[in-house]
Amino acid sequence: MRLQVLGKGAFSRVRVELNPGETFISEAGKMVRQSAGIDMDVTTKSRGKGGLLGAMKRLVGGDSFFLATYRARGTGEVVLAPDLIGEVAVLQLDGGSAWMCSGGSFVAQGPEIGIEARWQGAKGLFSGESLFFLEATGRGPIVVSAFGAVREIAVDGEYIVDTGHVVAFENSLQYDITKAGSSWLHSFLAGEGLVMKFRGHGRLVVQSHNPTAFGRFLGPKLPPR
Questions:
Q1: DSSP bridge pairs for 144
Q2: What is the pLDDT of residues 15-41, one digit of tens each?
Q3: Residue 24's pLDDT is what?
Q4: Which residues, 6 or more positions from 19, have their beta carbon under 8 angstroms from its beta carbon?
Q5: Is 6 helix (H, G, I), strand (E, B) or coil?
Q6: Residues 6 or more apart whose Cβ sits within 8 Å of residue 7
Q7: What angle do CA 5, 217, 123 make, to 5 degrees?
Q8: Bridge partner residues of 34 (DSSP)
Q9: Contact 210, 166 (CB under 8 A)
Q10: Which terminus of the chain has a smaller tally of CB atoms within 10 A, N or C?
Q11: What span, in angstroms and rounded, lies between the C-alpha atoms of 23 and 39?
Q12: What percentage of the chain exceeds 90 in pLDDT?
């Protein structure tokens, strides 16, 4: 199996090259094209986890209810792309730390990866973003997408990111939801809302643009239905 990110900037996608008998899994609806020798099956479970309840939690968190499994009868390829315009990134899991993906950022996974929606608790209620993170565990690749440019940051100590710009992070990092400025008034006047204050050691993936803020900007400009 070989993964290759195609294109740069707004229109990135990922090509997955499969050998005979190999499989790869994506959210339903992410396939752009595939070889004729690739069979596709649709399920609600990831590596035996979740079932209907897990699928419902993914749906509430902004991810897809169904997962598509691609199985190669011969050598072939599948090309996948996210819904929003922006870059994609391939993250390698080593079987140790899990990755937490924000709602809507998860695209695809290797066959040895398990995914499960995790409730954020009270933090999610105040973050203004998804109430669930998608936890990816196991060994192998996962593909995540960003709105705009994607960047990986090595956190060593403390790091602060606006809630709408977080794509994924290793679960070795702890976080709190807090105000952006020194006071709630300063945060409001600066046009900033809530931020995620990360602590610890681990990797963090962020996106350059906020899809929620873009939706609020674009919505009033669209003609009524």
A1: 89, 106
A2: 999 999 999 999 989 999 999 999 999
A3: 96
A4: 1, 72, 75
A5: strand
A6: 13
A7: 75
A8: 78
A9: no
A10: C
A11: 9
A12: 54
- The first and second tokens of residue 147, run together, are 């709105």
Give the C-alpha separation, 69 to 136, whole Å: 16
3-state helix, strand, coil in the chain (%, to 5): 15, 50, 35
Written as one string, the DSSP assignment of 128-146 is: SS-SEEEEEEEEEEEEEE-
List of domains in the chain: 2-220 (3.60.160.10)
Measured from the Cβ of residue 60, the count of other Cβ atoms closer than 10 Å reads 15
Which residue carries 């993914």 as its tokens? 58
pLDDT, mean over the chain: 84
Q: What whole-number distance in Å separates Cα of residue 177 and Cα of residue 199?
A: 12
Q: State in Å, rounded, how far the first CA of the chain is from the last one.
A: 45
pLDDT, residue 77, reads 97
pLDDT in tens, 98-156: 999 988 899 999 999 988 888 766 555 455 555 678 899 999 999 999 999 999 999 99
Q: Calculate ∠ Cα 182-183-185, nearest 5°.
A: 130
Tokens of 167: 């794509």
